[in-house]
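If you are new to this repository, start here. Below is one unmodified record pulled from the training split, so you can see the exact layout before writing a loader.
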Amino acid sequence: MKTKQSKIYTSFIVFYFLFFAAFVVIGSLYDLKLNQELFNPTNPIARFFEIWGEVPRFAMWAPAATVLLLTRHNLAECLEIIHRLFPFIPALSENAVKSKAYKFFNFIVNAIEIIGFTVLAVLGWDKVIRNVGKYYVDLSKGVWYIISGVVAIIFIAICSRIPKKVLNKLEPLALIGILIGIFFCFESPIKGIANRVRFREMVAFSSGIEDAKAAEVTSALVGTSDFSLFTSWYQKGNGGAMLNGFELGGGSCPSGHVISGCFSLLFPLLVSRFEKIKKFTVPACIISFIYIAFLGFTRMVRGAHFLSDISLGAIVGMLFFLVAFGALKLLEKKNILPTRDI
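And here is the target side for that same chain:
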């Protein structure tokens, strides 16, 4: 990445961390009061983002798998990457590549890659289509998989027309996306450690309503709600405690929606990799930041999270992105990746 691009990213990252760190501090002081003032679960925009807000994470898998399918490496290239990682493992010689044994095992590897990435693409489309579609229509898992399979095949066919040079440039982004997706698995354990109860659960349970997302849970109930089990983000939460006969969950901190929204950080990275559009890197950073911040705000309106929850979610999401990006840059610096010119 050139110096100008590096400065843009450095400035953006510093501003990003300072902004959300400041709101962690503000949230530490005013979390409960802010939610009491902002709580409006019937707000249509907030409801829309509850359904669609995680799309950046859901929508990453299928394109990433498609790119990796179309840029898949043969056995010799795979072994070359392994050799660069572990020099004591020899790469294949030219004679070995010409042998019948190599051709057989290369066929096996190629088949595994095709099947594996195609399945991942189908599952990726299922993730976004079913997670959004379930709010609008009730279909069985089998039907969702069929729909996702058809969409995956069409998408792969369209993307196969993209020049190889472009696909090779997209391969590192696909790897970064997949790596961030793997890091997202830590979201649930982190929530388990925080064990913080959701605002809307306290509101609903205080009024004897079991479903915190039910239509009858409105801002009018806030004044009669019991918030005695509220804790700050840095305190051990009360998830699992009973309130008015209902068991409180402990999934408020950090915001999973906001961490999912941080997958939009791949957008400015995508823009910066192509000469014709990299001049739009700054606007892309701004769009990504606004999306993450606004998504977080809607989660407060819905009563799903507190200000500190969404701010910590934004920080955790950025850390996931930076670790994934740093890992790929390290591999590039050590000439381990890429194996093809881009």
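Two things worth knowing about this chain: DSSP finds 14 helices and two strands in the chain. The chain has a mean pLDDT of 93.
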